[in-house]
Specification:
Shape of chain A: globular
Strand content of chain B: under 5%
Structural class of chain B: mainly alpha
Order of helices and strands of chain B: HHHHHHHHHHHH
Shape of chain B: globular
Oligomer: heterodimer
CATH superfamily of one domain in chain B: MetI-like
CATH topology of one domain in chain B: MetI-like fold
Mean pLDDT of chain B: 84
Low-confidence stretches of chain B: 1-41
Bound molecules: adenosine-5'-diphosphate, magnesium ion
CATH class of the largest domain in chain A: Alpha Beta
CATH architecture of one domain in chain B: Orthogonal Bundle
Strand order of the largest sheet of chain A: 6-7-8-3-9-10
Strand content of chain A: 15-25%
Mean pLDDT of chain A: 89
CATH class of one domain in chain B: Mainly Alpha
Number of strands of chain B: 0
Largest sheet of chain B: none
CATH superfamily of the largest domain in chain A: P-loop containing nucleotide triphosphate hydrolases
Largest interface: A-B, 65 and 56 residues
Number of helices of chain A: 9
Number of domains of chain A: 2
Chain lengths: ~270, ~300
C-alpha cells in the first residue's frame, strides 16, 4: 500500500487562444489506506487533478509522489474508475476481468480462478460469460471494480463513479465500496460533487475553490467505521454534511452558482 | 498474491444491493432474453454470431422478395411480351440453362462471367480497402496528414468513379488493370472516412482504463483502440462493397468482353431480355452473399450488436 503526495501542483490549459489557469499550487497528502474525497463545483479542476495523479496529464509545476516515487505516467499501481464503467464491449465479463493480467503479462494458471472468485465477491457469479451490454448499470460498475482489482492496485482513483446511476443503485454501490474498502483498505481518491456521498465514504473531504482550482479546506470525517448507510441518519453525519456543503458554497466561485449562474462557468 | 486471495476470501457480497432482486429498477437491468447467453456454457463467438441471426427478420425479408416475384409474374402475364418483360419462370429457365452452358454468341457460361466479375471486385476491393485502412489509420494518428488528405477526400468524394473510366482506359488500356484500379479508387475514400471516424470514436477512457490496468501504449493501441474501432471499419467495408458493384458493372458495360455487366449489355443488343434479368439476378445474389459474410464478420466483432 502506498500514499499519494501532491506537492504544489499547477496546471493551465490553452482555451480558445488564451491560457486558463485550472489548478494553482495544489498540495494534498493521502495516507496509506486512507479514503479522501475531492469536492468542489463543476469545472474547478477535480478531474484534472485526478488525471495528474493518474499520470494521464502532466502538471506544469509541482510533483506527484506515489510511494515516494514521482509519477511519470499511468501504471497499474493506480486503478482508474470513471463515471461510465468503460468495460470493453467486445469482451465477456470474465475476459474484461482478465484484461489486466493479460496486458501486463502476469497471467498464471491461477489467474482465471482468482478472477472467477473476484466476480463472485462483487456479486456477478453466473454472469461471467455475459457481455457488458447484458448487464445493468450497477452490475457493470461492479464488473469494472473487479477488473480494476485484478491487478492489485494500491490506489484507486475514481471520478464520480456513481454519478450516472439511479439513486437506489447508487446507494447500493456506495455500500459495496464501503465493504470492499473495509476488507482491502486501499488508498482512495474519490472525485464527487455529491456531498452526502463524500461524507458517507471518506476519512477526509478536501474542498476545492474554482478559477483557479485551489484546495481551500480539508474536513476530517470522524464517523465510526465500519460504516453502513444507517450512519447517514445520525446527527454527526448531518452536521458534517452541513459543514462540507457550506465549505463548498463559500469557496471562491461557489457564490457564482447563486449569483451569475452558468455565465460564470468557464465554458 | 497469497495474502491477496485470503483478503478476498474474507470478503462476501453481503450488504451489497442485489440488483437481480425485484427491488432493483427494471428497464436496463434485465438482459434481453433473445440474446441471452447461458451462463454455464463456454463462450463461442461463432456460435453467438449465428444465434444472433435474426430469423424472423430474414423471414420478413423473404416475404418482400416473394411479393416482388409475384408482382413481376402478374405484370408479365398482363404484358405477355417476352422481350419487354419475360416472366420469372422464363428468366429462371434461361438463368439455369446458361449457368453452366456457354451462351451461343459468346462461348462463356453465366457462372464463368459471374466468377470474372467477382474476381475483379475482390481484387479491386482488396487493394482499395488495404490502402484506405492504412491511410485512414495514419490520418487518425497524424494530425498534419489529416489536414492535408481531408480536403482531397472531400473534393474527390462527389465525383462518381465512372467519370474516370475513359482516363483509366487511356492510361491502362482495356485489360484487367483499369477495372481493378477503378474499383479500388471507389473504395479508398469510403474506407478512409469510416476508418478515421471509427478510430476517432473510441473513447479516450478506454485507453486510460487499459493503461491503468497495466497495458503498454502499444498493447492499448492494438488491443483496445484498434479493436474498439473494428465494427465501424467493417461497416465501412460493407458500404465499400456496394460501391464496388456499381463500379464493376459500369466498367464492364463500357470496356470489357466478359463479366456480368458485359453479359447484360450484350443481351440487350440481342434483345434477350431473359438474359438481362438473369444478369441482374446474379449480381443481386452475389452481392447479397458478400454482404451477408461481412455482416457475419461484424457480428463476430461486435457481440450483442
Ligand atoms: N485537455 C484540456 N484542454 C483544455 N481545457 C481543459 C482540458 N481538460 C480540462 N480542461 C478545462 O479545465 C477545467 C476544469 O475541468 P475539470 O478538471 O474536468 O473540472 P471538474 O472535474 O472539477 O468538473 C474546465 O474548464 C475544462 O474545460
Ligand atoms: Mg470532472
Amino acid at each position: 500500500m502506498a500514499g499519494v503526495h501532491v506537492r504544489n501542483v499547477s496546471k493551465s490549459f490553452a482555451h480558445g487562444g488564451s491560457i486558463v489557469e485550472i489548478l494553482r499550487n495544489v498540495s494534498i497528502s493521502v495516507g496509506e489506506g486512507e479514503f479522501v474525497s475531492l469536492v468542489g463545483r463543476s469545472g474547478c479542476g477535480k478531474t484534472t487533478l485526478l488525471r495528474i495523479i493518474g499520470g494521464f496529464v502532466h502538471a506544469d509545476a509541482g510533483s506527484v509522489l506515489v510511494d515516494e516515487a514521482p509519477v511519470r505516467g499511468p501504471g497499474s499501481d493506480r486503478g482508474m474508475l470513471f463515471q461510465q464503467p468503460m468495460l470493453f464491449p467486445w469482451l465477456t465479463v470474465l475476459d474484461n476481468t482478465l484484461f489486466g493480467p493479460r496486458a501486463e503479462g502476469s497471467f498464471t494458471p491461477g489467474t482465471r480462478a482468482r478472477a472467477l472468485e473476484l466476480l463472485g465477491i462483487v456479486g456477478l457469479a453466473g454472469f461471467e460469460f455475459h457481455y457488458p451490454k447484458q448487464l445493468s448499470g450497477g452490475m457493470m460498475h461492479r464488473a469494472a471494480f473487479a477488473r480494476a482489482m485484478m491487478v492489485d492496485p494500491e490506489i484507486l482513483l475514481m471520478d464520480e463513479p456513481f454519478g450516472a446511476l439511479d439513486a437506489l443503485t447508487r446507494t447500493g454501490m456506495q455500500q459495496f465500496l464501503l465493504d470492499l474498502w473495509e476488507r482491502r483498505r486501499f488508498t482512495v481518491v474519490l472525485v464527487t460533487h455529491d456531498v452526502e456521498e463524500a461524507v458517507l465514504l471518506s476519512d477526509r473531504v478536501a474542498v476545492m475553490a474554482s478559477q483557479p482550482g485551489e484546495l481551500v479546506e480539508t474536513i476530517p470525517i470522524p464517523l465510526p467505521r465500519p460504516r453502513t448507510y444507517e450512519v447517514s441518519e445520525s446527527t454527526d453525519f448531518v452536521d458534517l454534511k452541513r459543514r462540507v456543503r457550506q465549505a463548498v458554497e463559500h469557496a471562491r466561485g461557489g457564490a457564482a452558482i447563486v449569483g451569475a449562474g452558468r455565465a460564470a462557468a468557464p465554458y | 498474491m497469497e495474502t491477496q486471495q485470503k483478503k478476498f476470501a474474507m470478503t462476501g457480497p453481503e450488504g451489497t444491493l442485489d440488483e437481480r432482486s425485484p427491488a432493483a429498477p427494471s428497464g436496463a437491468s434485465s438482459p434481453p432474453s433473445r440474446h441471452a447467453v447461458r451462463p454455464d456454457t463456454r463462450h463461442s463467438a461463432l456460435r453467438d454470431g449465428l444465434l444472433a441471426l435474426d430469423w424472423s427478420r430474414i423471414g420478413m425479408g423473404l416475404i418482400g422478395v416473394l411479393c416482388i416475384i409475384v408482382g413481376w409474374w402478374l405484370a408479365a402475364l398482363v404484358i405477355s411480351d417476352n422481350v419487354i418483360l419475360p416472366s420469372p419462370v422464363a428468366t429462371a429457365r434461361t438463368l439455369l440453362h446458361y449457368l453452366t452452358r456457354p451462351y451461343p454468341a459468346r462461348g462463356e457460361t453465366l457462372l464463368g462471367d459471374t466468377a470474372m466479375s467477382l474476381a475483379r471486385i475482390l481484387a479491386g476491393f482488396a487493394w482499395g480497402a488495404l490502402v484506405g485502412v492504412i491511410l485512414g489509420a495514419l490520418m487518425s494518428a497524424l494530425r498534419p496528414l489529416r489536414l492535408i488528405v481531408d480536403p482531397l477526400i472531400e473534393l474527390g468524394r462527389p465525383l462518381p468513379p465512372l467519370a474516370f473510366i475513359p482516363l483509366l482506359i487511356v492510361w491502362f488500356g482495356i485489360g484487367e488493370l483499369p477495372k481493378i484500379v477503378l474499383i479500388g479508387l471507389g473504395v479508398i475514400p469510403i474506407m478512409v472516412v469510416s476508418v478515421v471516424a471509427a478510430l476517432d470514436a473510441v473513447p479516450e477512457e478506454y485507453i486510460e482504463a487499459a493503461r491503468s490496468l497495466g497495458a503498454s501504449p502499444r498493447y492499448a493501441l492494438l488491443h483496445v483502440r484498434v479493436r474498439a474501432a473494428l465494427p465501424g471499419v467493417i461497416t465501412g467495408l460493407r458500404l465499400a462493397m456496394g460501391i464496388s458493384w456499381t463500379s464493376i458493372v459500369a466498367v464492364e458495360m463500357i470496356a470489357a468482353t466478359s463479366g456480368l455487366g458485359y453479359v447484360i449489355l450484350e443481351a440487350s443488343n440481342y434483345l434477350v431480355t431473359t438474359l438481362i434479368f438473369s444478369g441482374i439476378v446474379l449480381i443481386a445474389a452475389v452481392a447479397l452473399i458478400l454482404d451477408g459474410l461481412l455482416r457475419l464478420v461484424r457480428r463476430l466483432a461486435a457481440p450483442m450488436g
